[in-house]
Amino acid sequence: MRTRRSVRSAHALAGALLAAALAVTGCGAGGDSGDSADSKAAGGKGVAADERAPAEAAPGSADQGAPGGAADRSRSAVPSAPRVAAEHIIRTASLTVRVKDVPTALDEARTAAVNAGGYVGDETTRRDGRGHERTRVVLRVPVDAYEEVLADLEGTGTLIERSANAEDVTGQVVDVESRIRSQRASVARIRELMDRATRLSDVVTLEGELSSRQADLESLLAQQASLKDRTSLATITLTLSETPVRKAAEKEDDDPGFLDALAGGWGVFLTLLRWLTVALGAVLPFAVVAAVAVLGWRKLVGPRLPRRPRQPGAATGGGPGTGTGTLPVAPPVAGYEQGAGRGASAPERATDAGSDDA
């Protein structure tokens, strides 16, 4: 009977412990300000315990016969001053500097960043239509050398624009650290419960909870790493632009000579020829299309059109009133026709008489 009761009581105790642990871990894993405050208080207790350890060890050292034991005990009894959290500030700056030689100034900027313990990030270089070079480079330098590197970069040329920004993220860093401690403790408690669990359902539930807590912990660790990188290294964006070189204007003669006129005329001729070539090239496609259209019209549509009927006088080379062709024939004389009806005319008769005499 005692064995059964002990077994039942053990199961009941294990179930109660599991439920209590899940409730505690669920409350401790939240990311709200209340959890952060609780974790800060727990951290403060840990620090106080660490500070009490040397104070408790001091009497032992005094009992060993050290002459300053009383002074050490009195010194350890004095409460220590509260620790002041270090400032965590994200510093960024942007500089625009005009220089004579962009590649040389860029090499100097790289050297300044590397010598300060930083590195060179993104870099972009482009050249405008007039051949002026412009480079944009991102430098990451330690916060301690931030001001020194800025001064070195400003001395490479003429400063055109400067802007600096400082963002205090101390509260965010402290909050993330507190949540990380709380989350690690929560993961450790879940692991302990998994070691004590005897039923399969409890193990499965605890494994799912452990995976969720570990994912949250990894996210917090990533935030901490990002904050550490941005607060330990300052970001400087440097823009280098090349100074336009102004050439001295050459003295021109007031009176142009023959060669000047020849050069000017030749330039005008070349310009005119170039524009004519451009115009011809622009018109040529339209001319080709128009010629093809005309040829197609004549070949396909022209033969099908009805032809005009020719006039009667067109065969002899012209008609009346055109001024070309044969002359009009006069109507016959009435007397001549009567004489012809009666007999031969007088000249014809004389001719006939002469022939008879012969």
Automatic annotation (TrEMBL):
Compositional bias of type Gly residues: which residue ranges? Answer: 315-324
The record's annotation in InterPro entries points to: DUF4349
The membrane-spanning stretches of this chain are: 275-297
Residues of the region (Disordered) are 29-83, 305-358
The secretion signal range is 1-29
Looking at the record, the residues that make up the DUF4349 domain are 88-298
Identify the domain of life: Bacteria
Q: Sorted alphabetically, which keywords does the UniProt record give?
A: Membrane, Signal, Transmembrane, Transmembrane helix
Q: What is this protein called?
A: DUF4349 domain-containing protein
Q: What is the lineage of its organism?
A: Bacteria, Bacillati, Actinomycetota, Actinomycetes, Kitasatosporales
